[in-house]
Amino acid sequence: MPTSFNELVQRRKLQNRDMRMVTLADKVAVKALVADVLGAEWLIPTLWCGTTLPETLDLPSAYVVKTRHGCNQNIFVREENPDWPSLQARTAQWSKRPYGLWLDEWLYAHIPRGLLIEPFVGKNGGLPIDYKIYVFGGHARFIQVHLERGKRHRWIVFNRIWTRVSAETPDADPAPPASLVHMLDAAEALARGFDFVRCDFYEIDEQPLFGEMTFYPGSGLDKFKPVALDKEFGRYWLEAGGR
User: Which CATH class name applies to 1-15+123-243?
Assistant: First the structure.
């Protein structure tokens, strides 16, 4: 019987075939739901989407190219004249291959393969802080805060009243986002009807923005510090129905 969070992620990967997860993990399709539930102001605009990058596109000087059907497949462009043929070649490889099979991440194989481009929302070329909210049974319990992604990436976990619950790091606690309450409410609205889902957000000039919804965080391989946190997350999931 799985009891820890990571064990429950593994069970979900192997047993849960809820097709709603497919739509919500699809970075293109999910935007319609977010606009309907939260409002269009929560969305990062889609500048383009398709299956292969065309020969030319009219784009701003900074943008993000990503897959709609996978994770950690992003290219951050922050220059006027990027090597477009290189972008085409790299993204073509992403679209050729199904994502997630090597880790048994079932849902990604059912998302249409493709690409999308969004404007870059970081400041001064740096990636924005990523606020990943863990929602169990419709209740937002924890916020995993990702700092300096793309550089010295690390994360800290806070509870919903912004008390650190993960092991100490040299970092001082970052201030909570100004829109934290709105993020928590938004995460609970999007997660309604699921025993667990993680909803990710950014905050730009105090405006919260939706990132994505994730059903297999870390593919069930995240290293929790302290280890007891893995059990605590698992307990909340089991209390919510644990499927």
Answer: alpha beta
